[in-house]
Amino acid sequence: MKIEKWVKNEINKRWNEASGLRYSKMMMKEPNTRRAKSLLNLSRNDLRVMMGGLNRTLLLIQTLEFNAKYAIYKLEMGKLHMGSFKLC
Q1: CB atoms within 10 A of CB 82
Q2: Organism's domain of life (predicted)?
Q3: What is the rounded distance in angstroms from the CA atom of residue 29 to the CA atom of residue 35?
Q4: Which residue, among 75, 61, 69, 62, has the nearest Cα to 85 in the 3D structure?
Q5: Whole-number percent of the chain with pLDDT over 90
Q6: Distance of alpha carbon 10 from alpha carbon 68, whole angstroms
Q7: Is a pLDDT exceeding 70 seen at residue 46?
Q8: How many CA within 13 A on the CB side of residue 57?
Q9: Where are the domains of the chain?
Q10: Among 23-27, 49-53, 55-59, 65-69, whose mean pLDDT is lowest?
Q11: What pTM did the predictor assign?
Q12: Pick from 29, 49, 27, 24: which is nearest to 39 by CA?
C-alpha cells in the first residue's frame, strides 16, 4: 500500500513539475490511472479515433485563444472598435 501511494505521489509530482503541457494540463488536472487503464485497453484504431477528437478539441481551444488575443491586441492598438463585433 505504501509503495502504491509513493508511486502515485511521484507521478503527480512529475506531472506538476513538467514544463509546458499547457493544454494537456488544462484538460487533465492530474494523471488518472483509471483513464490510463481504459486507454491502454482500447484497440489501436479506437485509440487513434479518440486521440483525433482530442487533438481537434485542443486545436479549437488554441484557435479561440489566438482569436481572443488578436482581438485584444487590435482593441489596444485602436484598430478595432467594440461596435464592430457581431452579436450571435
Answers
A1: 6
A2: Eukaryota
A3: 13
A4: 75
A5: 2
A6: 36
A7: yes
A8: 10
A9: 2-84
A10: 23-27
A11: 0.42
A12: 49
